[in-house]
Amino acid sequence: MNKHILITGGASGIGLGIAEALADSDTLITVTDLNQEAALEAAKKLSSKGYHALGVALNVTDEAAIIQLLSELPAPVDVLINNAGIQHVAALEEFPQNQWRLLVDVMLTGTALMTKAVLPSMRERNFGRVINIGSIHSLVASRFKSAYVAAKHGLVGFSKVMALETAEHDITINTICPAYVKTPLVEKQIADQAKNHGISEQQVIEQIMLAPMPKKSFIDIAEIAHTVRFLMAKEACNITGQTLALDGGWTAQ
């Protein structure tokens, strides 16, 4: 195997879609998820197609667990895809403090802990790719998503700092920022937004989610996976600390 790709939150949605797109005979895909059964099922799905895959439970906010996992894997990580994410939609006055902290811990602190853990090996081998799955909300804001927007904005700044700290090696760190992707996480958001705004779910899709996009369409997971593959390439060695928006023209306005 030539590559080892580790994807956090890889048992469903965007993470699983990326895993399926990147899997090949020369690659080991390690799928992590808070839910061990889901991680094992995702790995089983990949393995059934003849690919090399591992499924493991991991809490990305637990530094000791991260270090333990990396010590047990059969090969060092070449590509880290920080994808684990959760959402909670509520006005700040009604936002539970523990939920606010959890979102930031998973999507920002967890990303930092995962990156910190893989960097020594990447430096030693003079190669590494760290790809953060951000969001259109890394670049713009929406009401009722204070914790999510804060965490996703933080990814952009974190990537820039890490680009500077790893510049002497063939290591890059970038953030992919897609607009809305039809995943279970977004499906739940539609219902939550409808409740918070007092409108129908179809109105949420048309008036909130797709309204700012000139192309008026959800982003396909295949588009994100293709961007990941591009950033992994040797020829992308000087693309680092960058934010790639897959937003249908949203931020061009």
From TrEMBL:
Keywords on record: Oxidoreductase
Any Pfam family matching the protein: adh_short
Keyword Nucleotidyltransferase: no
Cross-referenced Gene3D superfamilies: NAD(P)-binding Rossmann-like Domain
GO terms for MF: 3-hydroxybutyrate dehydrogenase activity
Documented EC number(s): 1.1.1.30
SUPFAM superfamilies: NAD(P)-binding Rossmann-fold domains (SSF51735)
NCBIfam families associated with the record: PHB_DH, PRK12429.1
The family this protein is said to belong to: Belongs to the short-chain dehydrogenases/reductases (SDR) family.
PANTHER family: 3-OXOACYL-(ACYL-CARRIER-PROTEIN) REDUCTASE, 3-OXOACYL-[ACYL-CARRIER-PROTEIN] REDUCTASE FABG
Descriptive protein name: 3-hydroxybutyrate dehydrogenase
Naturally occurring in which organism (per UniProt): Pseudoalteromonas spongiae
